[in-house]
Amino acid sequence: MVSFDDTFRRQLHELFVWRRDVRRFRTDPLPDGTIERLIEIACLSPSVGLSQPWRFVIVDDEARRRAVIDDFKACNADALRSYSGERAAKYAALKLSGLEEAPGHLAVFAEKTDRIGAGLGRVTMPETSEYSVVAAICSMWLAARAEGIGIGWVSILNPDRIHGVLEIPDSWKFIGYLCIGYPQTECDRPELEQAKWESRRGPDEFTIRR
Ligand SMILES: Cc1cc2c(cc1C)N(C[C@H](O)[C@H](O)[C@H](O)COP(=O)(O)O)c1[nH]c(=O)[nH]c(=O)c1N2
Question: What residues does the Nitroreductase domain cover (predicted)?
């Protein structure tokens, strides 16, 4: 039996508070095997029917990384055009990826056709395979933070282009692109809150009873 004491619980709470979406990375490399170890932890996550639909692509190739950065720039420019006035000015000032600086690039996909798990839990809700992959990313996000490593989730990308750049099978659905590295700073408040883009709200705003 394993049990967790108050000290651990307090520290775990601190981990939740201090996990951040990181966009500002130091460029020093991660120790060999770091991303592989984080993937190992991610694979301990819950998954529908124990289907383990997560698929990880460590992107080391310079040309592919550059193509992802170019795609981000194009998508971000499109996104900027969807805002006007003060919002547009604010959006333009945000830093929304650390793709250029982060030593680690990890693309994450959900395998949609694999028979692992024999379809259990997915018959009425096939999207639960994507949910399982998101759960895996969250585990990795927290585990990384516990080691002082930052992760930034980038979704300002065109999934079809990412598929092409990385030569990914059609049955894999793109879930997210993660930048991984040492953060320049640490903070207990989301960067979007510091930039006055949005503020974090309390649980009362999101909870109802029936
Ligand atoms: C599915 C998904 C997709 C994205 C994000 C998150 C998630 C869950 N986030 C990070 C997001 O902005 C961040 O989590 C919130 O602002 C809250 O900040 P903390 O994560 O608490 O630091 C994010 N951030 C960013 O700068 N560029 C991006 O493309 C995305 N995309």
Answer: 18-182
